[in-house]
């Protein structure tokens, strides 16, 4: 079986398609390999295709006005990305970069449009994917604006726990390799701040730190802290930061 055919067939969005439809789609797709740290696409690139990650890991990110990288999300094998291409040929807004050697399948926009017209459930799936990803990014941006660095880190750790947590003898292993700088880029702070906050959480017995590895020793306590932080009134623009919030930022 052709490798592209196998990956298309096992993508959740395409699982309702008939074998002949998958075969036709496979003939029109292209597969590309990307080395670690190489760009999959850049801002202002034409959005002519939706992409399916077959192997590896890809990050979606953008740069702030100050030139700092802000990681929006990570894409795992079997996930679609660049899905806004279905809405038109507007240039890409974010950029995608291979975090490790990756295989990406490019599905032409016209093929997605044709399948969406024939399969309402596929159209609904694409719409849901766009909505969920936008909602997740918007929620993270709200925390970047209105929450302290500690609160943002707590919520990110819970998010990683839900997505990558695996039971181990030391607690729940977050099975994704992220350097302190990566975590800082996601929550909009500095590497030094992340290092200090992780050390505090380890001292409190919530985490165990390893080389680019994190174990959540007490998942329930971590969730409780994250939930408790949402009950605090967020710091609105123009408000003065409390001493505690200022120290955590």
Report what the structure shows.
The protein has 249 residues and is α+β, with helices and mostly antiparallel strands. The chain has 2 domains: 3-143, Jelly Rolls, CATH 2.60.120; 147-248, Winged helix-like DNA-binding domain superfamily/Winged helix DNA-binding domain (Arc Repressor Mutant, subunit A, Orthogonal Bundle), CATH 1.10.10.10. 44% of the residues lie in helices and 25% in strands. The protein contains 9 helices and 10 strands. The strands form 2 sheets. Strands 1, 2, 3, 4, 5 and 6 form a 6-stranded antiparallel sheet that branches. Strands 7-8-10-9 form a 4-stranded antiparallel sheet. Strand 7 (165-168) and strand 8 form a beta hairpin. Helix 5 packs across helix 8. The N and C termini lie far apart (52 Å). The model is unreliable at 235-249 (pLDDT under 50).
Report helical residue fraction: 40-55%
How is the CATH topology of the largest domain named? Jelly Rolls
Largest sheet at a glance?
A: 6 strands, antiparallel
Tally of individual helices: 9
- The CATH architecture of the largest domain can be given as Sandwich
The number of distinct β-strands equals 10
Give the overall average pLDDT. 83
Spatial separation of the terminal alpha carbons: 52 Å
Identify the CATH class of the largest domain: Mainly Beta
Please provide the ordered H/E string of secondary-structure elements.
HHEEEEEEHHHEEHHEEHH
Q: pLDDT below 50 for ≥5 consecutive residues: which ranges?
A: 235-249
Radius of gyration, taken over Cα atoms and rounded to an integer in Å: 20 Å
**Strand-residue fraction?**
15-25%
**CATH H-level superfamily of the largest domain:** Jelly Rolls
